[in-house]
Amino acid sequence: PKYRDAQFLTSASRLSQCPEDSGWEVAFAGRSNAGKSSAINSLTKNHKLARTSKTPGRTQLINFFSLSEQQRLVDLPGYGFAKVPRAVKEEWTRQLENYLAKRESLRGMILLMDVRHPLQPFDQQMLDWALAANMPVHILLTKADKLKKGPAKNTLLKVRSGLAAHAELVSVQLFSALKHTGHDELVAVLNAWLTD
Ligand code: GDP
């Protein structure tokens, strides 16, 4: 797919509002501030796209971007930290879990975490849901430029070995939107998931 052709498709606040469940989809998840918008921007070279997801008052469960008729990128907002009533959060959590469990076209999850704070409870929850659905997860350790090469590599190896029991479904890489580190590695994973 041509990631530069990504176009905003729709936002859904309920599963019933998702586009038809056909073709291929990859979801991006991360705590707020993990660097998700920056990663989507750097991938699509479209600075307006991911900002859509951040418009205040438009916090949605899921944002869909189309790459082609049958290929989509999906932005799962860092909903856990949005300032909304607890009941709304709980409902979103339920819908999100459902989306991850039921969506046929969803081929994998890109899970972004700040290289300086990997595997927070939110990340573990996402991993658990994805693994329960037998879905591959590719972890981006973001803002890799914030650490020196040695410590960044150490974190990569540590996260990788911590998840070794799930090595068939989980992969990990360093990423920096700022320095364009790991761009090709990410594209290779997306290409594989979006075509098979
Ligand atoms: P989001 O909330 O997950 O969408 O995160 P953003 O993409 O908005 O990034 C959060 C903050 O981290 C912003 O201040 C970004 O400028 C910064 N940031 C994102 N990616 C990088 C990166 O690769 N390197 C550095 N140094 N900062 C980054």
UniProtKB/TrEMBL annotation:
GO terms for cellular component: cytosol. Transmembrane segments: none annotated. It comes from the Bacteria. The keyword DNA repair does not apply. It holds the Pfam family MMR_HSR1. GO terms for molecular function: GTP binding; metal ion binding. GO terms for biological process: division septum assembly. Keywords: Cell cycle, Cell division, GTP-binding, Magnesium, Metal-binding, Nucleotide-binding, Septation. Its cofactor is Mg(2+). InterPro entries: G_ENGB_dom, GTP-bd, GTP-bd_ribosome_bio_YsxC, P-loop_NTPase. Residues 22-196 form the EngB-type G domain. Belongs to the TRAFAC class TrmE-Era-EngA-EngB-Septin-like GTPase superfamily. EngB GTPase family. Necessary for normal cell division and for the maintenance of normal septation. This is Probable GTP-binding protein EngB. It comes from Parahalioglobus pacificus. The lineage of its organism: Bacteria, Pseudomonadati, Pseudomonadota, Gammaproteobacteria, Cellvibrionales. The gene is engB.
